[in-house]
Write a structure and sequence with these properties.
Elements lengths: L2 E3 H17 L3 H13 L3 H20 L9 E9 L3 E3 L4 H13 L11 E2 L6 E2 L7 E7 L4 E8 L1 H4 L3 E5 L5 H8 L11 E8 L2 H11 L6 H7 L4 H14 L14 E9 L6 E8 L5 E6 L27 E4 L5 H4 L7 E10 L2 H12 L14 E3 L24 H11 L3 E4 L5 H10 L2 E4 L5 H5 L2 E8 L8 E15 L6 H22 L1
Parallel strand pairs: 1-3, 2-6, 9-10, 13-14, 14-15, 15-16, 16-17
Antiparallel strand pairs: 2-7, 4-5, 7-12, 8-11, 9-11, 14-19, 17-19, 18-19
Helix pairs in contact: 1-4, 2-3, 12-13
Length: 509
């Protein structure tokens, strides 16, 4: 009877989380590179290029693919003939592995977990606890599947109790556009169908950690109704034209995953969870012979792509910028930013709102006049880094604060990822301000443009503090210009029409 030792189990969790923080799964990497090769939308192709370049940099530098290093989700299939040599419970061992992984000084990972979620929301500082699902199965091994799931994609999870006669395809096609781009496509959409509400959600989460194989199904042909449904949804979701980062293009999803389970005759539960461009998961098995052996992939597996948009981009000096300058920028234009900007996310915006409500002054050093605020919660630096990976967070969450910030601070604009709401776009237009996007899933690449970083307010908020960044040639795209034109609206609309035209030509041949 195999004996699973406590240290082997903890060390396996630790090393697996470090591994997936900087190595994309190879199936995802290959599918993304294929999407890059066939993409014809310039904006989408540029975004995918940045994600691929970032991925290779992270594999070389052993630094996180994304600044949001995720909430840890673990599926355990524990053989009923396994014995444990452990003083801790299985849950405690998993959490100890998480703690060691996220505090590892060789590659510090961002702690994003907060306790008391409906109250004080205090950061646990080590990214524990994990979300753990355990199942006892026949056998003599412990199978571990774990992932680190970013908040931007988790927040876009959807669930519906459909009628048995309702179309799952229609529901998906109606729902995906409402998710916006905050889940950082191109990625994977995973569905759980049947069971009960919680079972459907659990299946969707588990299915997304299986290998990308839709290309194989297309080559050999579908063998069952679920494979037919996967192919249909893949084609129809991509035909929406949402594209990489929501900029419009040929590829929104790289695969559709589905798991199902018997359900009540009166019910059709359907859960849908997206997985983002920072797809992170791994599977390994412990059999009592030691910790998991996680061999590093070959760097030759990464496409060697150069970012060639620098010559076409407009160079911007943030330290001399005026509202008149900003008014000349157009939606879809690429900029390279140099100079000083501030950071701030949800918690910092709430602090600012409270300060204004009390008719007090902002903290010393925080002056947003003619400046930009970058929605980011960076990873702590190591070695000679100014800052760790520092990609954008979803800007939509800050919509509720935008009018206040523009009214009270003389801010020129914001930098984040994903679309802005209708009222926010109207506010940007009214204030002659702009919204810029950096590529979600290119956090390490973005961080290389940050020359210095220092906390200037709300240090107790950790990664949500206000930082002052000095950047050089930081790549961004104008998502909403001062006239209220949004590329997240125009891009998908344009490419949906183009894709329909392409399909008509294909069918006519």
């Amino acid at each position: 009877m195999p004996l699973i030792r406590q240290d082997d189990f903890i060390n396996s969790i630790h090393h697996a989380l470090q591994y997936i923080s900087y190595y994309h799964p190879q199936d995802y990497l290959q599918a993304l590179n294929q999407a890059y090769e066939r993409e014809v939308s310039p904006a989408a192709k540029d975004a995918i290029a940045q994600i691929l370049i970032n991925s290779r940099m992270c594999a070389l530098g052993h630094r996180p693919i994304c600044q949001d290093t995720g909430i840890v989700v673990v599926f355990l299939k524990i053989g009923m003939n396994v014995r444990w040599d452990a003083s801790l419970s299985v849950t405690q061992m998993v959490n100890e592995g998480v703690r060691r992984a996220y505090l590892d000084p060789s590659n510090v990972l961002r702690a994003s977990m907060v306790t008391d979620p409906a109250g004080l929301r205090q950061n646990t500082r080590d990214n524990t606890p994990a979300v753990i699902h355990m199942e006892l199965v026949p056998g003599k091994t412990v199978e571990v599947t774990l992932g680190a799931k970013g908040g931007g994609s988790e927040n876009k999870a959807k669930f519906a109790m459909l009628n048995p006669s309702d179309s799952i395809v229609d529901w998906v096609l109606k729902t995906v556009p409402t998710m916006g781009a905050g889940w950082c496509p191109p990625g994977i959409l995973s569905l759980g169908i049947g069971g009960t509400p919680e079972k459907a959600m659990l299946m969707a989460k588990e299915a997304m950690m299986t290998p990308i194989d839709l290309h194989e199904i297309r080559l050999r042909g579908p063998r069952n109704k679920l494979e037919e449904l996967r192919l249909e949804l893949y084609d129809k979701v991509n035909a929406l034209g949402i594209g990489a980062q929501g900029l419009g293009g040929l590829t929104t999803v790289l695969d559709i995953k589905i798991m199902d389970y018997p359900t009540h005759a009166a019910s059709l539960p359907v859960a849908m969870i997206p997985n983002c461009a920072a797809t992170r998961h791994i599977h390994f098995t412990l059999d009592g012979t030691g910790a998991a052996d996680l061999s590093p992939p070959s760097l030759s597996d990464w496409p060697d792509i150069a970012w060639d948009n620098q010559e076409k981009a407009r160079k911007v000096n943030l330290d001399t910028l005026t509202r008149q300058d900003v008014a000349t920028w157009k939606a879809g234009e690429t900029l390279l930013l140099t100079g000083k900007l501030f950071t701030g996310r949800d918690a910092a915006h709430k602090r600012i709102q409270d300060i204004f409500a009390r008719h007090e002054q902002l903290p010393d050093g925080v002056d947003f006049t003619n400046r930009f605020i970058y929605y980011v919660g960076p990873v702590d630096p190591i070695g000679d880094e100014a800052v760790g990976p520092a990609g954008p967070t979803t800007a939509t969450r800050m919509d509720k604060y935008t009018d206040m910030m523009l009214d009270r601070t003389a801010l020129l604009g914001m930098i984040g990822k994903a679309e802005r709401g209708k009222d926010t776009i109207a506010s940007l237009h009214r204030h002659r301000a702009v919204y810029l996007i950096a590529v979600g899933g290119a956090a390490y690449l973005v961080s290389k443009a940050i020359q210095s970083a220092r906390v200037i307010a709300f240090a107790e908020l950790g990664m949500e503090a206000i930082y002052e960044f000095i950047v050089k040639d930081m790549p961004v795209t104008v998502a909403v210009d001062s006239n209220g034109q949004s590329i997240h609206q125009s891009g998908p609309e344009e490419w949906k029409i183009k894709i329909e035209a392409i399909q008509r030509q294909t069918h006519s041949k």
